[in-house]
Write a structure and sequence with these properties.
The structure is a single chain. By secondary structure, the chain is an alpha/beta fold. The protein has two domains: 152 residues, Rossmann fold (3-Layer(aba) Sandwich), CATH 3.40.50; 102 residues, Hypothetical Protein, Haloacid Dehalogenase-like Hydrolase, Chain: A, domain 2 (2-Layer Sandwich). Helices cover 36% and strands 23% of the residues. The strands form two sheets. The chain has an eight-stranded mixed beta sheet with strand order 5-4-3-2-1-12-13-14, sandwiched between helices. Strands 8-7-6-9-11-10 form a six-stranded mixed beta sheet, with helices on one face. Strand 6 and strand 7 form a beta hairpin. Helix 5 packs antiparallel against helix 8. The radius of gyration is 18 Å and the shape is globular. The two termini are 19 Å apart.
């Protein structure tokens, strides 16, 4: 089979648990691109937080892509926006009405800024710490939002988030996408704004049959992409739900699972 595109999630997939791209994984993805295979970096992070990893992998040199907001914003190698999707403003109040009583922090993004309500918990600062952007706290978040948002990012205790996920699905599940992107992160996205749809847009733009795409991921928000790709690969450290829908399971992110799978598929040579 002739593979033409590799899509990689960032956290606990491309990055090891030290939050680094290992030299072996980087070399493998560079070799794949030298062999004519494009690379797309896909994440739930805002594009500002995705671009540095695209730079490390030299996707701008090789004509690749990067995707933020789980497919809500898709950029090509010229930093042109080729796909975008926003959460309809009519859902701001209904979503927040469910979140308001809970001990969770609700966040939205604007450009390279993160805004949050004033309910601070142990998980509040993970997003800002990981991508290196300050958290701007506002008292009345729904009233403060006067721009098109890509998503709600909700941070809190994993057990409470699972309960909130079911409440949101019960009331709004037919109208918006709701899923965990990490045990401590729950996301509310526009319907069909996910990594799977994002991968389809990238393949369409690149003139690639999605059956010739390989995708790597580890968490719930990667399921769409893993199912959409011709070959979906779960990391060894992936959630069981993702492993069940993957075509194969590779080694974990600390053992260069991406590089090993690319070699097994014949995309690169040792």
């Amino acid at each position: 089979m002739k593979y033409k595109l590799i899509a990689v999630d960032i956290d606990d997939t491309l990055l090891n648990r030290k939050k680094e791209i290992s030299p072996i994984t980087k070399a493998a993805l560079l070799q794949a691109q030298e062999n004519g295979v494009k690379v797309a970096v896909a994440s739930g992070r805002l594009p500002y937080g995705v671009r540095p990893f695209a730079e490390q992998l030299e996707v701008f040199r090789y004509g690749g892509y990067y995707m933020g907001f789980n497919g809500g914003a898709i950029m090509n190698s010229r930093d042109e926006l080729i796909g975008k999707c926003y959460l309809d403003s009519k859902y701001i109040e209904p979503v927040y009405d469910i979140l308001r009583p809970a001990n969770v922090t609700t966040m939205v993004h604007k450009g390279a800024k993160i805004y949050a309500d004033n309910k601070v918990n142990d998980y509040t600062h993970i997003e800002s710490d990981v991508i290196g952007l300050p958290l701007n706290v506002v008292d009345d978040l729904p009233s403060f939002i006067d721009w098109d948002i890509h998503k709600f990012l909700i941070a809190g205790d994993p057990a409470e988030l699972k309960q909130l996920e079911q409440q949101l699905l019960s009331k709004l599940g037919d109208e918006v996408d709701i899923y965990l992107s990490a045990p401590w992160f729950l996301e509310v996205m526009p319907k069909d704004a996910n990594k799977g749809e994002g991968l389809k847009k990238i393949c369409d733009d690149a003139g690639i049959d999605i059956r010739d795409a390989v995708a790597f991921g580890d968490s719930f928000n990667d399921i769409f992409m893993i199912k959409a790709a011709g070959t979906g690969i779960a990391m060894g450290n992936a959630e069981d739900a993702l492993k069940k829908v993957a075509d194969r399971v590779t080694d974990d992110c600390d053992r260069d699972g991406i590089a090993k799978a690319l070699e097994e598929l014949g995309i690169i040579s040792n």
